[in-house]
Every structure is written in structure tokens, then in C-alpha cells.
Amino acid sequence: MEERNAIELTNITKDFKVLNRHEGLKGSIRDLFSRDYRTVRAVDDVSMQIKEGEIVGYLGPNGAGKSTTIKMMTGVLEPTSGSIVVNGVVPYKDRVKSSANIGVVFGQRSQLWWSLPLIESFNLLKDIYLVDDKDYDDMMALYRSFVDLEPLLHKTVRQMSLGQRTLSDILAAFLHNPGIVFLDEPTIGLDVSMKATIRELIKGLNKEKKTTVILTTHDMGDVDALCERIVIIDKGRKIYDNDIEHLKNFFGSYRTLKVRVGSDTWEEHLIDEKNEDVMEVLREIQKTKKVRDMKLEEISTEEVIKKIYEGGV
User: Fold this and answer.
1) What's the total number of domains in the chain?
2) What pTM was computed for the model?
3) For residue range 226-249, what is the model confidence (pLDDT) as tens digits?
4) Residue 44 and residue 46: Cα distance in Å, rounded?
5) Are 143 and 43 in a shared domain?
6) 132: helix, coil or strand?
7) Do 189 and 260 reside in the same domain of the chain?
8) In this structure, is the dihedral angle defined by the CA atoms of residues 244, 248, 251 and 254, taken in order, positive or negative?
9) Of 34-38, 193-197, 235-239, minimum mean pLDDT range
10) Facing residues of 51 across strands?
11) Adjacent-strand bridge partners of 16
């Protein structure tokens, strides 16, 4: 059976009009009546197709155009040009139908009711999305197979830790069994243990429900744990769209040389073994510093993406 595309973006562009502001009090008053605008292109001719059931990392530096693209995919913004289809719907033309089949977790902005126990928020979402009793019970049973849900259900959201609230928001986003879930920085600010729990939950729900997941993050641990494919955007343009292994193979000659130069101070040096000799680099370091220990590691995903930003692909 041929895989269907959950998302299709074709030559999407998004422009914003930005006021050219003037300095000082007189400038501020002048700006109130000014028509001096410039056009800023936030997303520039981006195309991509995402298959049903994929987990795709959508990456880029701050201001690259990630959030603008996500807002167009969720129907919040209309593209200036190009076409976009999500779950067979043009999202900005039919926001109600589009919203019924997506889930979102945007940063730390909770969709849960602050003063209600979590179970009451779930019940309200069940009614909003018209989830029938059997589907709701099945989803709650699935949740219990992944996480210890009982301690959270009768706790108000205001009483939860950041990790518990994030976990609850992710559960809420999947509750109506949407075709696509958008996760924006889902593990930001969390400790190592909670990050691992949330990553396992996302992987488990994706596997069981075949939910397409679009993940934006600066945490390369999220990317390594969850994504087989990544799309990278920079200055509004797509600069990479392929799997992680292809990316690492491209930079296969790079290694990270870690040297300990103090009691617990480690320095990292990125080395291209095609052009540099590890021992020669080490000797140069030893001319100015006392090296107490060293180790050579494969290049990390984070370093690979840095090289791409620097024009390495």
C-alpha cells in the first residue's frame, strides 16, 4: 500500500510588512502616521512532502522561519504564495476541519485549564473534539501503558512541575488521535530523566497510532532520539532535507577531539581527518597547555548542524 503524504508544501513563501521605525520621541510620533514600510521575507520558496507516520525534525537558528512555517501548516497564517495541504485540507481555508485533525504543543504555553485537575481538562477536550467513549478509554489505557498517569490525573495544572505539565500537554495533544502533532521545543528546561520519559512517550505514541510528528527543537538529544529525517531552514530557505545518517556520512571524516586541561575542564576541537592529523593537533595544544587526558569521538549531530549553518553542505 502506497504511503500517503500527511503534509505537502509547494513553493511556500511568506512576506511581512515591517514599519521602518525612527529614533526618539519625534520619530515615535511620526511612526504613528508613517506609511514607510519594507517587506521582509520570513519563508522563501520552501517545498517539502512529509509522509504519514514520519517523525521529522524541523530545525534552524532563531529567526530562520521555523515558527512561520508551522503557523502556516496549522492554519494560523496564510502563505503569500505557493500551496499547502495538510491532511488533505488547505489549513488557512478551513481552519475548523484542519484543527480537528492536528495536535499542538507550543513551547511552554499550556492548552490545559490551569485551575482544574488534569482529568477534567481531558474530559473537556474529549467533548470539544467529539471523542467517543470507547476511543477515549482506549487512549487512556494506552497512556497508562507508557507513563504512570494516576498521580497526575487529580492534580491541578498549577500544582504540577514543569516536567509534569509538559508531559500532560503532550498527552492532551494526542488525546483526540490527530493525524499530525506539532511539537515546539517539548523538552526545553527539563531534567535528563523527564526528557527521556517524554522522548519514549512520543516514540511510543508515534509507533502505536502512526501519528505524524513535526518536531522543532534546539536540543540535539531530541533529534537523535526521535528523528530519522531532518529538514533544516536558514534565513527562510530550506538548506537540507534528508535523513540523519546521510548527514553524518557526509561529515564522516570529522571527529571531536576532547582534551582535559584542568582538574575537570574539557576543551573540544573539531578535526577533519582528511586534512588534519590528530597527533599534530594534540602537539599544538600541548605547546600552551598541560593535557591531562584526551578522547576522540564521532562528530555529534549538533556539530554536524553547525557545519551546515557555516556552509558545509
Assistant:
1) 2
2) 0.79
3) 998 999 888 899 988 988 777 767
4) 6
5) yes
6) coil
7) no
8) positive
9) 34-38
10) 5
11) 40
